[in-house]
Write a structure and sequence with these properties.
The chain is built from 20 helices and 25 strands. By secondary structure, it is an alpha+beta fold. Helix 10 runs parallel beside helix 19 and helix 15 packs across helix 17.
Length: about 775
């Protein structure tokens, strides 16, 4: 394997110092001269016609500078996918969920803005409220959106192979149902933004977002501004996990208020408003039928899924496809049929969350595979290994496994967990379970139809050659992308890690589609690598001309020029370099020609040294309807073994240990990869055992705080053994691919399978509360 000096190491994060010292400035830390504060009026009713809005009292309140409703706002519809634009800045005709935005106020301070909001009078006519899929799709329902009279906002019907004919050849067929609950992203930093509109008609938005580019496009479209007049800057972000991946009413309202007042406007969600805005995990209802041969060969899968979408589409059109398409791997599955339905309800809109669309489906199927393996008398790991895909395989729905270390992941968790000694051999109440996961390394296409590059980057070398500046519009949201991209730039250029200074998250730096679908290491990394190599060639090209040495006989490593064919006399060019720098820098002459010297030589010859890079995937498989969702230049995979203790008297579940192996292609930063794996396991543990957004019978969230919506703490996390598998992805920079989301896929089913091993009960509804396990244990005793 090729040796590297910067990548595949454990270098510290570039943002570590700023975060641990408190120097990092998040959006709500920002302040500007003459700044106003905004607040939203939100509907108290889940479904209601808006008859009249009276803002007169609010406008008269001292300190109020502007009040806007749908009358003052644009009526241009927006959303995530152009095929499902169904939102406007404010409700015009009716509110569709408790929390839907009615109006916004800008005032001299936040307290005044909140008081003004309380003075706005709205006359409502309450309408029927549909809080579940069955009610929303019943005969004679009132449409939540006029364009969808049956409240089915999206549906997918796909078949690869012939499932019904394939079932006729099976020796064993099984059907199971599975349901999760709506869950929240639970990031620590609420959404926040500051909008500033200047006298030249330029709008700058500072916002806590995962995708500055998509926010920029939406603002320009909705407010009718040229896209070049809109700049979006992402400060430090305190977590995203999916719900911050698209433009929100908060951002649009702040921009509108700034345009109206000519002053900067800050708006920040309360924690309750985070829950109301949501755009987090859907509730899924899966029914899976799987057919196999008696030797364990997978033959066919039929998957029917209903998604509770909430009041608006958000990322739903992608979610409904992912809920089916991602089950095409990592096992060899020749026949697959999927029918998916996303239903509008009068609850907060659901969107994308870590493992987008695939988490509940994977939980359902991996548990069913365990049941089947037991019925066939096979070890669950052996059953999976028998059906595992490998490099070069293509799924029935045209996903190309350009690399796939799934076999290695399974073998690693088996060997490192003591599986053979523990499976079905532990004391009553103790259990061990396994599951696999699979996810994309970046969406193959932008959200909007375009031939645009998915990522661009620029590398600029300072005049003295001492500093390399990397500019990228990519979004560092805590996942470590700034660190990864800095390492890629340093390795590709041949300089030290500390000599590269990254600036990111600004639409003025180019285009980058953002932090979603686990895309940045592969896609943004490609653009950065190309930009760094571009600059490197310029520097070596100039040096080649000066020394009369072929360019291919030189390289740059660790900030030193490497001459591949012996020692070179560069005393003349060094003498000129030192003369030029006299009085400017005290440059010691050494036995090696440095990068700084070579860069200065190139600068004097060429002027400013700038290298650019751009990336978009090549041609991807899939010509069928919906193939744009799920196709990717690479796929990550993972396996987990989990051990649990089940209290046989109370049903309480404790996760004792987790062994996780993930194929990330090539680890750019090994510590960062392990951190992403551990974060996924923590989030999956929470979704398995604790997390559920709850509503009353009028559609209001009743647990919108971290005191009532429980997420795992450090006390809930078990010992975790993370194992990095490297499969050398040919489509990734230096062989790297995803680790951000795919690692969450096996966590829930591994826990469920371990619970069965411990207590002999199957749980098919999340979260796995003590009550659900206790009830299952009681029913088992009765039988």
């Amino acid at each position: 394997m090729k040796e590297y000096s910067i990548i595949n190491t454990r270098l510290p994060r570039v943002d570590a110092h700023a975060k641990v010292t408190g120097d990092a400035r998040y959006t709500d830390d920002l302040s500007m001269p003459n700044m106003l504060y905004g607040a939203l009026l939100q509907s108290p009713l889940a479904h209601a016609k808006i008859l009249n809005i009276d803002v007169s009292a609010a406008k008269k309140l001292a300190g109020v500078k502007e009040v806007v409703t749908s009358s003052e706002a644009s009526h241009v519809k927006f959303g995530v996918s152009p095929a499902r634009y169904d939102e406007t800045i404010f409700c015009g005709d009716k509110a569709r969920y408790a929390g839907d935005e009615i109006a916004a106020v800008a005032a001299v301070d936040y307290e005044t803005a909140i008081e003004a909001v309380s003075l706005i009078k709205v006359d409502y006519e309450e309408l029927p409220c549909y809080l579940n899929i069955s009610d929303a799709t019943a005969e004679g329902v009132m449409p939540i959106h006029a364009d969808y009279p049956d409240n089915i906002g999206a549906e997918v019907h796909q078949e690869f192979g012939n499932v019904e004919e394939a079932f006729k050849t099976c020796d064993y067929i099984r059907t199971d149902k599975f349901v999760n609950k709506k869950q929240d992203g639970a990031f620590l930093e609420p959404q926040s933004c500051v909008a500033a509109y200047d006298l030249n008609g330029n709008l700058t938005l500072y916002t806590s977002t995962q995708s500055p580019h998509y926010v920029q496009r939406t603002i320009a479209m909705v407010l009718g501004l040229p896209i070049g007049k809109v700049r979006v800057i992402k400060p430090y972000v305190g977590g995203g996990f999916g719900p911050k991946a698209a433009a929100s009413t908060l951002e649009l309202a702040a921009c509108l208020l700034s345009i109206k007042t000519g002053r900067p406007v800050k708006m920040t969600f309360t924690r309750e408003q985070v829950f109301l805005h949501s755009r987090a995990r859907h509730q899924f209802f899966h029914e899976l039928t799987t057919g196999v041969k008696k030797d364990g060969t997978l033959v066919a899968l039929k998957n029917t899924c209903y998604l509770d979408g909430g009041a608006y589409s958000s990322f739903g059109i992608a979610t409904i496809y992912y809920a089916g398409s991602l089950l095409g791997a990592p096992y060899k599955l020749p026949n697959m049929k999927y029918d998916g339905y996303r239903v509008y309800t009068n609850k907060p809109a659901n969107g994308a969350q870590r493992g987008h669309g695939g988490v509940a489906a994977r939980a359902a199927w991996e548990q069913q595979l365990d049941i089947i393996s037991e019925e066939l008398g096979m070890d669950p790991i052996d059953f999976r290994l028998k059906n595992i895909m490998q490099r070069g395989d293509v799924t029935c729905n045209d996903f190309n496994m350009s690399s796939l270390g799934m076999k290695e992941c399974l073998e690693a968790v088996k060997n490192n967990s003591g599986w053979a000694k523990k499976k079905s051999k532990l004391p009553k109440g103790k259990g061990i379970g396994v599951a696999c996961g699979f996810f994309v390394s970046g969406a193959g296409f932008p959200i909007y139809r375009s031939e645009t590059f998915h990522a661009t980057a620029m590398v600029k070398v300072s005049e003295d050659g001492g500093t390399v500046s990397l500019y990228t519009a990519s979004a560092e949201i805590g996942q470590g992308s700034d660190t990864i991209l800095t390492q890629i730039a340093a390795e590709a250029l041949g300089v030290r890690y500390e000599d590269v200074r990254i600036s990111s998250g600004d639409t003025d730096f180019g285009i980058d589609l953002g932090a979603y679908s686990s895309r940045q290491t592969l896609m943004s990394g490609h653009a950065v690598k190309q930009a760094a190599e571009n600059v490197k060639q310029q520097i070596l090209g100039a040096l080649s001309g000066k020394l009369k040495i072929p360019l291919h006989d030189m390289d740059i490593k660790g900030g030193i020029i490497i001459f591949k064919k012996g020692k070179i006399d560069f005393s003349d060019i060094r003498s000129n370099y030192i003369k030029e720098h006299r009085g400017w820098t005290n440059h010691p002459a050494g036995e090696h020609l440095t990068f700084a010297e070579a860069a200065r030589i190139a600068y004097l010859e060429k002027g400013v040294l700038v290298g650019t890079g751009a990336y978009k995937p090549g041609e991807l498989g899939g010509k069928y309807k919906g193939a744009a969702v799920g196709t990717s230049p690479a796929y990550g995979c993972s396996a987990q073994v989990v051990e649990v203790t089940v209290d046989m008297e109370t049903g309480h579940v404790t996760v004792d240990s987790m062994t996780d192996a993930h194929d990330c292609g090539f680890a750019i930063n090994r510590t960062n990869v392990e951190g992403q794996m551990q974060g996924s396991l923590s989030m999956g543990l929470g979704e398995a055992l604790f997390e559920e957004v709850k509503f009353d019978n009028r559609g209001r969230v009743i647990n919108p705080t971290f005191g009532e919506y429980r997420i795992p703490t450090s006390l809930d996390m078990p010992n975790v053994n993370t194992i990095i598998i490297e499969s050398d992805e040919p489509n990734g920079p230096f062989g790297a691919k995803e680790v951000g989301e795919g690692a969450i896929m096996p966590t829930i089913p591994a826990i469920l399978n371990a619970i069965y091993d411990a207590a002999g009960v199957r749980i098919s509804e999340l979260p796995v509360t003590s009550e659900r396990v206790f009830t299952a244990l009681k029913e088992k005793k009765k039988k």
